[in-house]
Amino acid sequence: MVNLTIDDKQVSAPKDSTIYDAAKLNGIKIPILCHDKKLKPFGACRMCLVEVEQMKGRQIPACTTPITEGMIIRTDTPDIIKARKLVLELLLLNHPLDCPVCDKGGDCDLQNLTYDYQVNSNRFVDSKFQHEIDYNNPLIERDMNRCVLCGKCVRICDEIVGFGALTFIDRGIETKIGCEFEKGLNCEFCGSCVSVCPVGSLLARPFKFKSRFWALNKQNSVCGYCGTGCNLTLGVKDNKVLTTIYDENQGFHKGQLCVRGRFGYQFISSDKRLTKPMVRKNGVLTESTWDEALEVVAGRLKGGTDVAALATARLTNEEFTLFKKLLEKAGTKNFDHSAGYAHAALTDGFARSFGTSASPASILDVQKSDLLLVIKTDTYETHPVVGFEINMAVKNKGVKLTVLSDKRGKLSKLPNAKTLVHTPGSEIVILNALAKAILDAKLTDGSASIIPGLPELELSLAAYGADAVYSQCGISAADINKLASEYAAAEKALIIFPVGQAYSGHTAELATAAANLALLTGKYGKEGCGVLCLSEKNNSQGAVDMGFYAQNGSMNALQILDACTSGTVKTLFIAGENPLNSYPDKDKVKSALNAVDFLVVSELFMTETAAMADVVLPVCSFAEKEGTFTSADRRVQYVKPAVRKGIQTKTDYEVFSDLICCLGGQIPPSTAAQFDEIAGRVPGYQGLSHASLRINSAFAPVSITPAFVVPKVPAPVTTGQGMLAMVTGSALYHSGTLSQFGEGSMYVCPEAYVELSRTDAAALKIADNDLVNVSSNAGKLQLKAKVTARMPSGVVFVPYHFSAAPVNTIWNGAAVTPVSLSK
Amino acid sequence: MSKVVAQQAEEQEPEVDLIKADQVIDKYIDLPGNLMPVLQGIQDAYGYIPRIVADHVAERLNVYPSQIYGVLTFYAQFHLKPRGRFIIRVCVGTACHVQGAQRIKETFFNLLHIAHTETSADLRFTFEEVACLGACGMAPLSMVNDDTYGKMTVQKVDEIVAKYSALPLD
Hints:
The complex is a heterodimer of chains A (823) and B (170).
Chain A: E1 2-6, E2 9-13, H1 19-25, E3 49-52, E4 59-61, E5 72-74, H2 78-93, H3 109-116, E6 140-142, H4 152-161, E7 167-169, E8 176-178, H5 192-196, E9 202-204, E10 217-222, E11 231-237, E12 240-244, H6 259-263, E13 278-281, E14 284-287, H7 290-301, E15 307-311, H8 317-329, E16 335-337, H9 344-353, E17 371-375, H10 379-382, H11 384-397, E18 400-405, E19 418-421, H12 427-440, H13 454-460, H14 470-473, H15 477-489, E20 493-498, H16 508-521, E21 530-534, H17 540-545, H18 557-566, E22 571-575, H19 579-582, H20 586-595, E23 598-603, H21 608-611, E24 615-618, E25 627-630, E26 635-639, H22 652-662, H23 671-681, H24 690-695, E27 698-699, E28 724-729, H25 743-748, E29 753-757, H26 758-763, E30 771-775, E31 780-788, E32 795-799, E33 817-822
Parallel strand pairs in A: 1-5, 15-16, 15-22, 17-18, 17-20, 18-19, 20-21, 22-23, 23-24, 28-32, 29-31
Antiparallel strand pairs in A: 1-2, 3-4, 3-5, 6-9, 7-8, 10-11, 11-12, 13-14, 13-24, 25-26, 26-27, 28-33, 29-32, 30-31, 30-33
Helix pairs in contact in A: 7-22, 8-22, 8-23, 9-16, 12-15, 12-16, 18-20
Chain B: H1 3-12, H2 18-28, H3 35-46, H4 51-61, H5 65-74, E1 86-91, H6 94-98, H7 101-112, E2 125-130, E3 142-144, E4 147-149, H8 154-166
Parallel strand pairs in B: 1-2
Antiparallel strand pairs in B: 1-3, 3-4
């Protein structure tokens, strides 16, 4: 700690602080426009000028000057106030001063400072800026006339997002912020630049003219999309979620969000939401009452051994627990979520390798590690905020990054990142070859010898010599050996891979193969080490923790659908899942849902699946209910209603309790009491309660019992002459099928596409945006072509989210599907 | 660089051959901080920085395209439009100004119909006003490429234009 004096106050601050940090830490406010605590100091705005006695009273910027012992600083002398007023006068000189119509009004640093410093006249006269306003995209409006050139947008896009869409153009008085060749913004649309803009230059267009800032009711919540578990502040007015508000103190990600979190909130207050229960009468879904609907459902559930259930991984932990109780009451053990295979890496893979169905690492480890091995580049697409963490780790901390993927991506472009592009579907082969290379070079950690299963593993890896696997995976022996020795030599190393419904290749076997590497080299159970499985939805890990999946011989999701077709399952309860769109093999799902005697769907929207139901129950989104979500790295977070639910809608929790009552059970406890029961039962949740989680989220610790597991390697896929290998996955802008109802996501990425390499495009004479027929054994689908530099030749990528062009018409769940493309 | 100029640059973009660019990039690819020498080399090779080449440089050097554009617009030495074979520079610094640089400038404009930073349609001439060429004793001063013309007069402008119009373009 360094001792110094600020405004006659004796204070101390950590030694690497700047004057600005030290003042802020000690409650002294220094005005500033160009500072954000996540970004590196820049010193652009000159508002934070202070006087330092040791520097002969010169005015120096507080945000870029490090503190030294015994510094005597004054922040508010008449000279400084005069200087700040001058800065403001100059900033306001060319500014349009259109505050009455500016959405930033009330939340604008420039406006507030002008008020604070009483700049009511300007000694200078000059013309106003005449820059054209960028309305080229539906999400972010750029009005450079209001800009104060603080550079925060340029810096956040580079330092955190890693996209680099914005830059300073020209110089001197002509300087402005813009994109290359004055084009409109064409980026990831995460809106980070909007969040840090101190003035009204960058604005969220969906929020334009919706509300003044001070009229918004700010509600803390947790994002309902992916498993990262980002914290949100929702801006609510008249019981409608109108925007998300940036708070740099929120969550591990310090308020940083992706396009879905920031712009995909519209589904909450969408007018397409279901408002009344519906019951099928004479073949037509007709609006009904809750009493009738619940009675019909309860009648079907009673004593039904032929009942099964599928749930979305977006339910709360309390709802999963209660749903399980309801199903047990109904006498069935057949329930599952996320198509079954999407959580197998946790429930099967990690359960065998680490003795626990959770990742033995957290997102916080990304920046604390020395080496990251990221399987699939899609991490930044499936979990964009984790992508930001990786970007910061590589750029600021010099963490080594190796990407093992079937295509390139944003992460491949990071400085010194090594991308090993392999044959699709050969991940496990490569991981095995890495394990063998580590064993052969005797790079194993001492702790590995006492873990059971080592001799069997060693024996099974005999065929995976680095030279031998080249033909299968396309990665050279030199690269494999180099990566193996780097991984083993790194003091701390972390393996990251995403799982999800479109990542059917990311199986339990892949998890065990990755775990073997960590176990061989002792890279687990320590800070910055481990294997992090990024589960797809906001409560995927919670669903696993609550035990809402097939166990002890009960049917998994795909078996349940088969049983529907064969008639063994007669009543199917689908809570929030949309299998018709997201499960593999659409035809099979459709015939199962057609065949099942009685289908009840609880949903937010009239999805394709809901449209086939006999009873549709309108339920609540994350912003309308109370409960807890568990993120991919087992952070348990509390959500409370941010908006009132519709009069005729119920939360899933209420639906399940009502049904339990209908079945003659006792009225279940409140969600808080339900969570107390969970805390008493689920390992790692001990000591947690709603009351404690309201204040702070908490990690549920993971205890590891390591074991080596011999991964079963899937047979390699041969694509055949003239065929391309199709891999499926998530598009950056979407999450599951829910984001289709988030207007922000749909503005930027409105339809499915097939992404292919330039060489394949040239050979097939396909241009960008051409309509292309993609045919596989399963069927045919017409998609827009997207020709990109990141795809290797012979591989095409199709995202899954879209009902209008569901990829499951041509995909039956294989990790790699041979397809042919034609115009 | 105004938006209009950037648009013109796009419209005027002819087919360019990336081989020359690749040669320059290959030369500097392993050099730390190689963006400036690469861009300078490319400008030497093409006479200006074609947009497609800028995008190509971004991809090969792994630099954001926006960052390249920032550098290109920051330095006056980079040009985003094809430039003429002959660059006419008319000094409008203080000494030349009092010696009648304004008349010289106007005469060039009347003959060639190109203003500051503009290029004639046949790519023969580019016209630039410069603040000072550092030879005030010769005011008013003009330059065409590396040739200097001091004590300029309206007649001399005619002669210069006639002389360089007669020279071959290659």
